[in-house]
Amino acid sequence: MAFLVDNLAPIMFAGLIVFLLIGFPVAFSLGACGLFFAFIGIELGVLPAALVQALPLRIYGIMQNDTLLAIPFFTFMGLILERSGMAEDLLDTIGQLFGPIRGGLAFAVILVGAMLAATTGVVAASVISMGLISLPIMLRYGYDRRIASGTIAASGTLAQIIPPSLVLIILADQLGRSVGDMYKGAFLPGFLLTGMYALFVVVIAIVRPAWVPALPPEARTIREDDGKSGLLSLLLLTVLSVGLAIAFGQHYTEIVGWWKGEVQARPVATDETIVVSMSLGVLLAFVIALLNKLTGLRLLSRMAERVTFVLIPPLLLIFLVLGTIFLGIATPTEGGAMGAAGALVMAWVRRRLNFQLLVQALTSTTKLASFVVFILIGATLFGLTFQGVDGPKWVEHLLTQLPGGTLGFLIAVNLLIFLLAFFLDFFELSFIVVPLLAPVAAKLGIDLVWFGVLLAVNMQTSFMHPPFGFALFYLRSVAPADDYVDRVTRKPIPKVTIQQIYWGAVPFVLIQLVMVVLIIAFPAIVSSGLDKAEQIDLDKVNIEMPTNTDGGYGEPSMEGLEDSGAAPASAPEGAPEPQSPPAVEEDPMKASQEAVEAEKKP
C-alpha cells in the first residue's frame, strides 16, 4: 500500500497509456483514468474529497475561453474555401506556370499547399483537395508515385505550422501564451520548411529527372495567340510590384510619422512593415490586371492576368486574417471570424455558395469542435487528479535530472514527441503531454513561445509517418486503388499502393526532423519573428520617498535602473539630513518604511 501511495503519479500515467493502447477513445480514456485514480487517491488519503468539487469550475472555465472560439472559425473558413474551387484554380494555374520545368507540378503542389495552409489551416482539406486534383495529373505525365504522394501529403501538413494553424491555437492555450505571438514565431519556420520541400524536389530533378518530368507542350494550355508563354509580362509585373513593396517598406517609418504628424518618426514593428508593404504590392498588381481586363489594352499576357486574378483572392484573405492579427487590429478569434466571412464572400463570388455547401461545412465544423472540447474536458479531469497526486513534480524530477541540462531536456522531449506521434495525433499530444512539459520548460528558462513552435514542427510528423499518419490516410482515400485508363491520354495508369505512399513520406519526415534540429541549433529562427519588449530587472529598481515642504512624505516614485544617472532629490529645509548609503544594498521598500518610522519619532 505504501508503494501505491508513493508512486500514484507514474502508475496513473501508465494507466492512461494502457487505456489508449486498448483503443478506447482518447477523451473518455482521459476522463475515466482521472475519475478512477481520483477515487483511489481519496480512499488512500492522498487526495481530499473536495478536490473533485473543482471540476465543474474547470469545465466552466473551458466554456469561457474565448481563444478556443478561433478553432471553429478557422475550420469553417477552410472547409468553405476547399469546397469553393479555390484549390482547383490555384493548382491548375500554378501547374501551368511551373509546368515547363522539371518538377514543375511538384513545385506547384508545394506552393499551393503553403497558400492553402495560410488560408485554411486544416490538413485534411489541403491533402484531399490536392490529392483529388494534382495526383491524377502527376500520374498522367509520368511522375514517380512515391515522389507524387509524398509531396502532396507533406505539403498538406504545412497547415500544421503555417498560421492560422489549429495546433498553434491549442498550444498557445495549453502553454498560457498569446496566439498572436505563437503565429509570429511560427511564420518564418513554416516558410523555411516550404523552401526545404522545394529544395528536395530540385535535388530529385537533378539526380532523377525521369521521376519528375516537365509538362509536354500540348499540356500547356495558357498561351498567347502567337504561341508564346507570356512569362515576360508576368516577370515585369512581379518586379514592379515587389519593387514598390520594398521601396514602401524602406520608408514606411517616415510615412507613418508624416501621417501622424510626428516631428521625429518612431520605429514601426517589423511585422507591421512587412504586412503593409506586401499588401500594397499585391494591390498594385491587382489594379493593373483589373485595368488591363476592363480596358482591353492587353498590357499583360494571359498568363500574367490569370496568375494575378487567381492568386490575389487568397492573398487578400491571408491579409484579412493574419495581417489584422499581426497589426494588432484584431484578436485571433476576431481574425478567424473575419476569415470565415471572407471565405463566404469568395464562395459567393465564385457562385459556389449554396445551402448544401453551408450544411456540409457547418456539420464538419461542429464535429471537429465537439471532438476538441470533449478531449479538453477529459484532459482537464485527468490533469486535475494528476496535479493532486503531485504528478507535475514527478515529471519535473524525471526531466530535470536528465544529463545535458537544457539541451538534454530538449532532445529527450523531441524524441518522446516523435515516438508518441506514431500512435497519437496532435490534439492528443497537445492535451496530454504538453501540460506536463510546459512547467519543466519554464523552470529551465526556455521561452514557451519558442518551445511551442518547436513542438508544433515535431508534431507534424504525426500526420506523416506510419502506421497512423492521418495525411497518408487522407491521401489513400482519394488515390486510385485500382488500375484505370486516363481520360485525357487514354493510356493505362497503374494504381497507387499504400507502400508507395509510406515510402514517399519518409524523406519528408526526415526534412521535418532536420527543421527541428535547425530550430534548436538556431533559436533566432523563431525568436526573430517576435518583437522583444524592453526588459526591466526589478531587483535593480530604486524606489525613493521624496519629502514635502511640510515634513510629510509624498507618493513614492520609481526611478529607472541604477545606472540611469538620475540624481536624488535634495531635501527641503528642516528635513533630517539623509543617511549615507550603506555598503550593502538594502531592500528599497524596507528602507522607505524605516525612514517613515524615524520621522514619526519625537
From TrEMBL:
Single GO MF descriptor: transmembrane transporter activity
UniProt domain TRAP C4-dicarboxylate transport system permease DctM subunit: residue ranges: 13-525
Family annotation (InterPro entries): DctM, TRAP_DctM
Keyword Translocase in annotation: no
Membrane topology: Multi-pass membrane protein
GO terms under cellular component: plasma membrane
Subcellular location: Cell inner membrane
Ranges of Low complexity composition bias in the record: 564-577
Region annotation Disordered: where it falls in the sequence: 544-602
Main location: membrane
Keyword set includes Transmembrane helix: yes
Protein keywords: Cell inner membrane, Cell membrane, Membrane, Transmembrane, Transmembrane helix, Transport
A Pfam family hit: DctM
Membrane spanning residue stretches: 7-28, 34-55, 67-85, 105-135, 147-171, 191-211, 231-253, 273-295, 307-329, 335-353, 365-386, 406-424, 431-457, 501-526
Top-level taxon of origin: Bacteria
Signal peptide location: none
Record's function text: Part of the tripartite ATP-independent periplasmic (TRAP) transport system.
Database matches in PANTHER family: SIALIC ACID TRAP TRANSPORTER PERMEASE PROTEIN SIAT-RELATED (PTHR33362), SLL1103 PROTEIN (PTHR33362:SF7)
Name of this protein: C4-dicarboxylate ABC transporter
Organism field: Caldimonas brevitalea
Lineage per the UniProt record: Bacteria, Pseudomonadati, Pseudomonadota, Betaproteobacteria, Burkholderiales
